[in-house]
Amino acid sequence: MFPSKNFICLSSLAALAVASSSLPATAQTTPSAETPTINGVVTPIPGTTATSSAMLNSELPSATAQPSSNQIAQSDIEVGGATRGGSSYLGVGGNIGITGESSALSDGNFTVISKIGFTRNFSVRPSAILGDDTVFLVPVTYDFSFQSLGDPFSEPLPIAPYVGVGAAIKTGDNSETAVLVTGGIDVPLNNRFTATAAVNAGFFDKTDVGVLFGVGYNFSGF
Prior knowledge:
Low-confidence stretches: 23-31, 67-75
Organism: Richelia sinica FACHB-800
Signal peptide: 1-27
Protein name: Outer membrane protein beta-barrel domain-containing protein
InterPro entries: OMP/PagP_B-barrel (IPR011250)
Number of strands: 11
Keywords: Signal
CATH architecture of the domain at 88-219: Beta Barrel
């Protein structure tokens, strides 16, 4: 009788084990101390979980390439513009000969004068001294501007000196080209007119020196 009872107990335990193994296994997730749970459901804490698409965008390569800047560097050259010594101009004047006898530069003659700026510091000043041996002066000059003494923030003084070198071209039967050295001043009279005076030296066979003066009409570029 006892063996039968033992057999029945063993059969019951085996059946219980088979029934337990057939049930679905449920994974238990133990929430961390920092993650609250409500009714067994894990609830994320605001600020601790990335909910924005920015995270995804930061990991993906940029789909649209940004166009590179193709700006062309602006040149400082402005033919006919003003220099720091004043406006460009075209005018007339006279020449007084000081020494020499090689060209009209050394005589008293009528002149055509001009100033053509091409940067803030440099200009070319073509002029023609008319006479029996007309001479053309083509100097490249460096233009200055003076500030009032003792006050660097005041307006520049109404006087603009310049110095330069270039070519003196003599025409006529004995045409010749020589080195020219020049120095002078521009004095703006108003928005339309500029007075000028200069000493010119042309190194021909004999050095010709003359003093040029005149008034030019201002213009603002080509």
